[in-house]
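Quick one, probably user error.
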């Protein structure tokens, strides 16, 4: 296995990696990545792991055979260990990987004031990791987009400080964030954010309804999919006549169009689709999205407004199609479900409709352009009502239901 070749190829795919080491770990390539934090800061990227995973590691994995795929990675806060000759110290890396305390952080002197204590106290409600001034919010403390929105709201309400997300990319360790608050604080309180209030805020942006065009898309796509993919629809009667969150598994770029072609006309006209701006905001797909009741999101820009916009269809009595995995599978296996869809279900007290899309992975694998005429089955499971479940539990119940159906009735078996 040519590990140097793998390293050079990954480096060629992104400017956000400063250094990388590829080693063979548990019989597969494993990457240790030292990000280019300055380039990430300049690009205002705050979801570092997602950027490096999907636009470096997974882009490389799409190109190669199974044995060459990178099966794991670790993002480092400090430069890679080097030998006296300035080569990567493989022995030190192996020791790092085999250490049980891989992410252990040493004690540091902490500011002794109310602002730091209040900020740290709030962060401790989000993470179980050790919190010190040098802690990176994402890489050390595990913050995600939802946590960032909560943090922005907490800081604004508790300290009177509004953080511009463009500036936040330079404040992603606790000390920098604390210093920014210290310089701009208006008062000190402890006001914990409430998602019901955050998502309930009115925004000026209006939804674009396109019922005639949506109906036209369905009319054109359904017979095409039925013929070309031998499309099979199971338990369509489980689609409720009232608003819900439609949560499909995500195997390929076909999936949103499949759902659009299958939903009853009455349901489709009052359904909105959530999609990434980087994919569906392009010159090719932008016009389709604009007139396809699609809400485009960017994980690094105006997160609070984006989440409020995602909630707007539900506030107006519509359904929302959202892929809980947040990305297409690269190996047919389900990814982890992000909890935002479950939180929307809880906030608006509307059910989740789990949908199993199976076979679209074989029809159009990531990186391919022309779909193959493989059989696709779409199964609508019974709606799941939020009841007394927490968001994480609700997300797990939804994922388990989809995974069980895939294991029981996969078209690839």
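Nope, works fine. Designed sequence:
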């Amino acid at each position: 296995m040519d590990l140097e070749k793998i390293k050079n190829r990954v480096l060629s795919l992104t400017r956000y990696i400063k250094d990388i080491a590829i080693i063979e770990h548990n019989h597969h390539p494993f990457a240790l990545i030292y990000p280019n934090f300055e380039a990430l800061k300049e690009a205002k990227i705050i979801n570092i792991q997602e950027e490096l995973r999907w636009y470096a590691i997974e882009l490389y994995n799409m190109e190669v055979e199974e044995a060459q795929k990178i099966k794991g990675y670790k993002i480092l806060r400090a430069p890679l260990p080097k030998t006296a000759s300035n080569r990567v110290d493989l022995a030190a890396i192996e020791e790092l990987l085999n250490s049980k305390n891989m992410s252990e952080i040493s004690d540091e002197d902490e500011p002794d004031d109310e602002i730091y204590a209040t900020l740290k106290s709030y962060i401790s409600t989000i993470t179980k990791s050790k919190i010190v001034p040098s802690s990176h919010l994402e890489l050390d403390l595990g913050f995600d987009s939802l946590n960032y929105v909560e943090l922005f709201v907490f800081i604004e309400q508790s300290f009177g400080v509004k953080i511009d997300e463009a500036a936040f990319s330079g404040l992603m360790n606790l000390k920098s964030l604390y210093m920014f608050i210290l310089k701009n604080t208006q008062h000190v309180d402890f006001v914990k954010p409430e998602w019901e209030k955050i998502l309930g805020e009115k925004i000026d942006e209006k939804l674009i309804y396109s019922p005639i065009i949506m109906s036209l898309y369905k009319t054109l796509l359904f017979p095409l999919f039925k013929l070309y993919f031998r499309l099979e629809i199971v338990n369509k009667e489980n689609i409720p006549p009232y608003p819900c969150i439609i949560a499909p598994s995500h195997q390929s770029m076909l999936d949103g169009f499949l759902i659009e072609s299958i939903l009853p006309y009455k349901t489709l006209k009052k359904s909105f689709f959530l999609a990434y701006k980087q994919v569906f905001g392009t010159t090719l797909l932008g016009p389709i999205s604009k007139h396809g009741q699609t809400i485009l999101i960017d994980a690094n820009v105006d997160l609070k407004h984006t989440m409020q916009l995602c909630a707007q269809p539900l506030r107006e009595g519509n359904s929302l199609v959202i892929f809980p995995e947040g990305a297409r599978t690269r190996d047919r296996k389900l990814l982890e479900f992000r909890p935002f869809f479950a939180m929307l279900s809880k906030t608006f007290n509307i059910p989740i409709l789990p949908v199993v899309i199976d076979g679209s992975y074989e029809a159009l694998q990531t990186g391919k352009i022309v779909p193959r005429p493989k059989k696709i089955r779409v199964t609508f499971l019974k709606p799941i009502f939020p009841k007394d479940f927490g968001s994480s539990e609700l997300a797990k119940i939804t994922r388990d239901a989809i995974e069980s159906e895939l294991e029981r009735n996969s078209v690839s078996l």
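Strands lie at 17-25, 28-35, 72-75, 232-234, 245-248, 271-276, 294-297, 319-321, 352-358, 377-380.
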